[in-house]
Amino acid sequence: MIPGPRNLITDVPGLRVGNARNDAIKTGTTVLTADQPFAASVHVMGGAPGTRETDLLAPDKSVAEVSALVLSGGSSYGLDACSGVVDGLRAAGQGFRIGPALIPLVPGAILFDLLNGGEKDWDENPYRALGRAAYEAAAPEFELGTAGAGTGALTAMLKGGLGSASFVLENGVTVGALVAANPVGSATTPGERHFWAAPFEIDGEFGGLGTDGAAGLGRRLDSRKAQAARERANTTIAIVATDAALTKAQCQRMAVAAHDGIGRAIVPAHLPGDGDLVFAASTGAKQLADPHMELGLIGHAAALCLSRAIARAVYLARPAPGDLLPCWSEG
């Protein structure tokens, strides 16, 4: 496995990602969309998820494809970003048709960034406009770090952010991950220089410092900063995608496997205060010769991509006025 040419989820042909942010509020939205509707499913392992239209992604539900997936800040307010994306899709003539009716299907998930130091005294919910702007900005190239849904993200000890990574497998299939990393736990070992994901790093993509030989399995969960993180409530929300032709049930298995990437890159993960969630998407462009065997490899690659994307999110975060936590780059 080698990274794709961009080392982004958009190395999966046909996918586009758009970001929008509000620096005063310290929040933003990220949208993944595609040239054509795509199969998708989801798996939730956090204890406090916030979602929209995720029930329709279950393998037994009748909806076969969606037009976009949304990751957003804003807690419950941020779910309205999906409405902005629906507006954009409708204007573009995209969606599920029932007779003359056009219905864009846009599942989404949110993270909690309401206590990150930004101005939250808005009169009108800003997220519908952020969702529309992110949809309009969707392209193969997009910003990481303090961008999109990762704009106001925080980890236990450092700023979080938006991350992405990809792999091209030996069979020609591409797998990618996109994540807004805002966990209760930490992406770095004690001392905040080494990443838990270091064993999976490719070509120094998040600093090249290697593993921390002094790190144990735990960390200072009784520290004041970690306590503050628990009181904020947090989450890690992600999308993994492939051009392999997968059913909704197979997408769900891919999402389940990808959660290993969160567990390897964040310590601790999947806590009661986290809303950890992974969407999985398939554009269906490449038929698999042996779907049973190859699905396992795709899930493994998705987990590795997600670990790398989480570390890249923290590594690429940049300072901004009013930050409550430092960036990795300031260490």
Structure, described:
The protein has 331 residues and is of the alpha+beta class. The chain has a domain of 219 residues: L-amino peptidase D-ALA esterase/amidase (4-Layer Sandwich). Helices cover 22% and strands 24% of the residues. The strands form 2 sheets. Strands 1, 2, 3, 4, 7, 8, 9, 10 and 11 form a 9-stranded mixed β-sheet that branches. Strands 5-6 form a two-stranded antiparallel ribbon. About 2% of the residues have low confidence.
How much is the radius of gyration in Å?
18 Å
Structural shape:
globular
Q: Helix amount, in percent?
A: 10-25%
Unreliable residue runs: 219-225
Q: Roughly what is the average pLDDT, rounded to an integer?
A: 92
In CATH, the topology of the domain at 9-15 and 35-66 and 144-323 is named: L-amino peptidase D-ALA esterase/amidase
**Biggest β-sheet: count, sense, barrel?**
9 strands, mixed
User: Helix/strand-derived class?
Assistant: alpha+beta
Structure annotation, total helices:
5
Quantity of strands, as a count: 11
Q: Into which percentage range does the β-strand content fall? A: 15-25%
The CATH architecture designation of the domain at 9-15 and 35-66 and 144-323 is 4-Layer Sandwich
CATH class of the domain at 9-15 and 35-66 and 144-323: Alpha Beta
CATH superfamily of the domain at 9-15 and 35-66 and 144-323: L-amino peptidase D-ALA esterase/amidase
Question: What is the terminal-to-terminal distance?
Answer: 32 Å
What's the order of the H and E elements?
A: EEEEHEEEHEEHEHEH
